[in-house]
Amino acid sequence: MATVEVAFTPLPAHVRTARLIATAVARRSGVDESVLDEVRLAVGEACSRAVEAHRVYCPQQPIRVALTGDGERFEVVVTDAAPAVEPVPAGAAGSGSDTVIDGLAVIAGLADDVRIGAAGPGTSIAMSWKQRIPPA
Amino acid sequence: MDLKLGHYDKDGIEVVDVEGEIDVYTAPRLRELLIDLVNKKNYQLVVNMEKVEFLDSTGLGVLVGGLKRVRAHDGSLDLVCTQERILKIFRITGLTKVFGIHNSVDEAIAERKADK
Q1: Backbone torsions φ then ψ of B74, nearest 5 degrees
Q2: Is the N or the C terminus of chain B less surrounded, counting Cβ atoms within 10 Å?
Q3: Contact B64 A98 (CB under 8 A)
């Protein structure tokens, strides 16, 4: 069972909330302070990607974030319910003509381990980091 | 923290001050400002990111979009950033090779003037 589970409606404003929660839980779980920025950014990227996909395919469905610290690793799983077809780049919904930066590549550069898989009709992105301090 | 934006002219170059978080929620405001500046024929831009607390790939996309817009007019978009937490995302995405990244607004303007 996850330490903390969050579900939020696919609105860009809620991505910041998800980032704040992830950072707080990571800190509480004993993730090193030097890694918290990476957790914050990676979770933000995964949630932004999910929000954009939901806004296109299923705006009524919530996005789910599960955060777990097992003493050795801190893991965050972001699960969307959008059909796993062509990936929807961050910024696709109403972004005008901005260049699209691959959020998954950013996540891969930040997390110690990344696993991407199917989750029902959608996709889950599991990111994990080592816990360097015993959780409080 | 929300996003605060301001801009001013310095030596013929438009300096954009950005403060706060640039993410999927706030990036559209920065995009609108950059588009507005380009529409008003400001093609030499310096974006001061010294007070940016968070930047994600959506924000990077807006900056790259701004760069493309000014380059279409033979302009430039330089960045001022010394924060390691922000520079890291530029390195991960390889964008350190795309943007001129400077230590101060004065340095960015001086180097841009020297390139002319």
Answers
A1: 60, 30
A2: C
A3: yes
